[in-house]
Amino acid sequence: MSQPETTRAPDETPRARKTTKVAVVGAGAVGSTMAYAALMRGSARHVALYDINRAKVEAEALDLSHGIQFMPMAEVVGSDDVAVCADADIIMVTAGAKQKPGQTRLDLAEATISLVSKILPELLAVAPDATYVMVTNPVDIVTYAALKISGLPPTQLFGSGTVLDSSRLRFLIAQHCGVAVQNVHAYMAGEHGDSEIPLWSSATIGGVPLLEWDAIEGRAPLTAEVRDQIAHEVINSAYRIIEGKGATNYAVALAGSRIIEAVLNDEHRVLPVSTLLDDYYGISDICLSVPSIVGRHGVTDRLQVPLSPVEIRGLQHSAASLKEVARRFGV
């Protein structure tokens, strides 16, 4: 016996299936690797690459698509038309001037701010509700300028900040102490650059305060000298990588995919992203990285982690350095 045919009212439409969409602006070393990392981790069901170089962006998308069989199921598209970013849930902006050996991140500011001022209004026209994450360097100045250009609230637009730097810090601590890096909780704060500082006073290893860490199985303790060496390595590691291979891409892409997941999965994860501060230890009206809560609505809060007097002065010095640069470029 046949089943009765169901009918749909004229004004009733099928419910659209909601899938997560990530748009990556810039198909260079960082952007293409970030798309790859997001796909490999299954961060989103739809990944869009946008770049003004049509041949490059289409080739990157095609290459990534050919590997979908070996990843969590997803769709990849690439285009030189900004419409490819339409309705994205999160937009990762990696496009910018390329850092050359010997250049500081701040040296890139003028060219990158000019580029962002051109592309950001176009992105807002097709994806006004997206969460925007600035990745391109100098990320703190670029994020500050992007907020001014876009008019978006600081919850909706922020920078990748020192998420990568904190990963470098944790790796070096873990390596020295002989523990899994996942059991190290420590942050780099301030500028994503030369004036950043490690927050030693709040760092822990498996719940043990780092400043109380003793030698285990013959490993050397974390003396002040060792901590200074680790901090120096964190700050200068990008320069070493750029000198050796021209760009950093793997670790920053993985850091970016972690931010993507925190937003799309509404994780309320604590990450040291770069946000506009308002009276954070006396610091206001500049974008700096401090431990912040990241979820579906962007950055919803900054944690007032305990800081030593030295760390407070270091953070304030970092803020002053960035404000001077911001004034120099009129933002």
Helix segment count?
A: 8
| Residues in helix, % | 25-40%
What fraction of residues sit in β-strands? 15-25%
- Main-sheet strand order equals 3-2-1-4-5-6
Organism: Sanguibacter keddieii (strain ATCC 51767 / DSM 10542 / NCFB 3025 / ST-74)
Catalytic activity: (S)-lactate + NAD(+) = pyruvate + NADH + H(+)
Main location: cytoplasm
Binding site for NAD(+): 26-31, 51, 56, 96-97, 135-137, 160
If you had to describe this structure to a student in words, what would you say it looks like?
The structure is a single chain. This protein is an alpha/beta fold and 331 residues long. The chain folds into two domains: 21-159, Rossmann fold, CATH 3.40.50; 163-328, Lactate dehydrogenase/glycoside hydrolase, family 4, C-terminal (L-2-Hydroxyisocaproate Dehydrogenase, Chain A, domain 2, Alpha-Beta Complex). The protein has eight helices and 16 strands. The chain has helices spanning 29-40, 54-65, 109-126, 139-150, 163-177, 224-245, 250-264, 309-328, and strands at residues 21-25, 46-50, 75-79, 90-93, 131-134, 157-159, 184-185, 188-189, 197-198, 204-205, 208-209, 269-271, 274-276, 287-289, 292-295, 298-302. Strands 3-2-1-4-5-6 form a six-stranded parallel β-sheet, with helices on both faces. The chain has a three-stranded antiparallel β-sheet with strand order 7-10-11, covered by helices on one side. It has a three-stranded antiparallel β-sheet with strand order 12-15-16. Helix 1 (29-40) packs across helix 7 (250-264), helix 3 (109-126) packs across helix 4 (139-150) and helix 5 (163-177) packs across helix 6.
